[in-house]
Amino acid sequence: MRIVHSGWSKVVTHPIFAAVNFAGSIIIVYFTPLFGVMLRYHIGHEFMMIHFTLTGYIFMLVLIGIDPIPHRPEYPMRLIMLIATLGYHAFVGISIMNSKALLEASWFGNLGRTWGLSALDDQKMGGALMWGIGEIPTMIVAIAVGFQWSMADKKLAARIDRQADRDGDAELNAYNEMFERLHEEDARHDS
C-alpha cells in the first residue's frame, strides 16, 4: 500500500498524466530520432516494449482498473479520456499510412528484403493496421467502462433504497418539505 500512496504513484496514475503519457508517447517514439535509437540498440528496443506496456497498463488502470489509485475519474470523464486518446492513435496510424517517406529509412530501407511489399508499402500497411486494429481494444474498453458505470449506478441505487427503508425516506421527505416551504413563501409574496 505504500507504493499505491507514494508521490510517484499519485503522479503516474493521475488521469491527465496517464492520458498524456499514453497518447504522447506514441507520437514521441514514432516521430522523433528516438525511434531510430530504439531500433538500433537492443536495450532501446527493450525500453520501448517496457515503456509501452507500463504506459498502457497505467492508462487502463485509470480507466477500468479495480485496484486502488489516488485519483479515479468519474465515468463520464473516463469515456472522454478514451475518446480523446483514440484520436491520437488514429492520427499516428493515418500519418504513417499516408506518409510518402519511410520512417527511419536508414534502417528499414537497408533490410535487404526482396520478397513481399516494398518497405514503404509495408509501412503504409502497418499504419493501416495500427489505426484499424487499434480501434478494437478501444471499443472493448468503452464497453467495459459503460458496464462498470451501469453496475456502479445499480449499487448506488440499491444503497439509497436501503437507506430510505431504514430511515423512512428521510432524505426525500426533507427534499419535499423544502419545496413545500418554497411554495408557501412564493404564495405569501404573491398575495
Structural commentary:
The protein has helices at residues 7-12, 15-30, 34-40, 42-64, 75-98, 105-108, 119-167, 170-190. By secondary structure, it is an all-alpha fold. It has one domain (7-157). α2 (15-30) packs parallel to α5 (75-98) and α3 crosses α4. The longest helix has 49 residues, at 119-167. It is elongated, with a radius of gyration of 26 Å. The model has no long low-confidence stretch (mean pLDDT 88). It is found in: Cell membrane.
Protein traits:
single chain; about 190 residues; mainly alpha; 8 helices; transmembrane; membrane; Caa3_assmbl_CtaG-rel
Layout of secondary structure:
Elements: H1 7-12, H2 15-30, H3 34-40, H4 42-64, H5 75-98, H6 105-108, H7 119-167, H8 170-190
The helix fraction, in percent, is: over 70%
On the 0 to 100 scale, the average pLDDT is 88
The figure for the number of domains is 1
Strand tally: 0
Strand-residue proportion:
under 5%
What profile does the largest beta sheet have? none
What characteristic shape results from the CA principal axes?
elongated
Poorly predicted regions are none
Instruction: Compute the number of helices.
Output: 8
Structural class: mainly alpha
Can you write the helix and strand succession as a string? HHHHHHHH
Termini gap? 63 Å
Determine Rg (CA atoms, Å): 26 Å
